[in-house]
Here is the input.
Amino acid sequence: MKMPVIKRLVETQTLENLVAAEQALLEEQPLAIEVEGEDEGEQLTHVFAAIFILNHMQDHGTDFKTALREYTAKVRVSIS
Here is the structure.
């Protein structure tokens, strides 16, 4: 998971584009947007994180850094 990639997606893509990219990755289809990543798994991680962050920013009126912290906290809890 690379934070600069996630930040770039949040800043340059719409929620619709990200959801479409997530679906394309899950169905092993070509992406309509560029998503950096070593493989499809890392690309999916970046897209999923960007979707979570955009939703959190909209739902809670927070900035990127706050939403990113919330996302990373959830990731830490899920792997511990």
Notes: The chain has a mean pLDDT of 96. Residues 3-79 form one domain. The two ends are 17 Å apart (CA to CA).
